[in-house]
Amino acid sequence: MLGFHPIQTSLIKLVPAHHFYQQLLQTVDFNFVRPLFAPFYSAGGRPSLDPVVFVKLLLVGHLENITSDRKLLELAQLHLGIRAFLGYDLAQPLPWHSTVSRTRQRLPVSVFEACFTHIVGLCIQQGLVSGHTQAVDSAYIKANASMSRLQSKRSRTSTQATTNAAPANAPCITASVDRLQHIQRFHAAIRKAAPTKSGRLVSNLTHYSPADPEARICFKTGKVRQLAYTASVSVDVAQHVITHIHADLADWRDSRYLLAIVDATQQRLNGFALAMTTVIADAGYSSGENYEQLEERGLTGYIPAHGKYKVEHAGFTYDAARDRYTCSQSKQLTFDKVFVDAQGNPKKRYMAKAAECKVCPLAAQCKGKKAREKRLHHTPYKAHYERMLARLATRVGQRMRRLRASTVEPVLGSLITYYGLRHLSKKGQAGAAKVLYIAAMAYNLKKCLRFHACQPGNSVISLPAPGPVRWLILYFCNSHWCYNRHSGKIIKWLPILECVDFVSC
């Protein structure tokens, strides 16, 4: 007979014990959330959304690669495993999507950062983090704003005119007059090169997004311009655990954010009694200031120099001990002064004597026709650049460059493709930071769960050996590899505290 038949059962019995969310519930105790959220919850009034349920819902959204709160609650309404993970019965109604959104907006970023730090500590407790070597990189995450809705900023004075009429609440232009003139010349050159090409010429100095004023215009070679934020991450090279993540503005170079990333990562690792010694990054984080500050912090950096850096000047030899150049005619170019170029970078200038250049047979092709003497300049951090380039030229430096590409780039690709960072549904830098912290928590929890499932106490495979076998244990970036001399195969072994040459078993 057709109809509804009541069934007396438990939701836990309907979900398999080996289900992902059940294993996550058994591995991680989410009660750590309550003390962190307690200062922002009132003791009276209407019952609020349980902070543990709130954090679990956000984690499910990133684990299921969902960027919409509506879609997330629709999935949780139908998914038995998610209901059991949240602690809800079959007949118990789930919270509204607007409740989740308002709770996220009202909580500060520091709470989400504290939750992320706790998960990093859990990974450290499981032995997933070595701490000594960190790989740093960044990626653009599309903001919740449209390029077609950009508006012009207001002029600093009423006498200056902009291309379009700016509203009264628009932010003011903060760029200098020289910088604005440079942009106008750049746009004029583009119009001259492609007069029939459609599209607006916009810049972060002259335009902004009314929907998200903190989003910045960015682009990469071969890709369209978009409004985005910069997701900066630091990844431990042992098991690719994210040790730091931050949402930055997308209109600055990566080198402006390196020291902040290093300091935040080092402070978090020091809280768990781990010492960071090595930093790996690409050429986008290269600058003389960063090289100097890393050395002052006692850190070893492996960061290639930017393409504009010149190792030497053709025809001139630099004497580091006396801080001077010598030309091909044995004339000396001594240090003159430190100046700042048009891009705002400090430079050291070296000059030859005008009397010596006047009688030099190579004066016309060396100094030119108008200059009185030959002038050279280089960065004040030349010694730091040379030490960095010498370190990168070694075998360890080449290995570190390959290690960075195989460590942090796959992590960023996974976050964007599988953990809900295709685009940001939340607005503002604070909203972007909250999303990034939860996405990194979901990524680290999945790492921790997989590592926990591979522990010897959980699943042990014993293979009988005909006799004593010799194993060679190699140490490579905190990962230990074993070489079986009988089979000729290399397999990965569990992490150990010390490196042993040969072991008989």
TrEMBL record:
UniProt domain Transposase DDE: residue ranges: 326-448
Transposase InsH N-terminal domain mapped to chain residues: 11-106
Alphabetical list of InterPro entries matching this protein: IS1182_transpos, RNaseH-like_sf, Tnp_DDE_dom, Transposase_InsH_N
Protein name: IS1182 family transposase
Keyword Ribosomal protein: no
UniProt keywords, alphabetically: Plasmid
Source taxonomy: Bacteria, Pseudomonadati, Bacteroidota, Cytophagia, Cytophagales
Species of the source: Hymenobacter volaticus
Pfam annotation, one family: DDE_Tnp_1_6
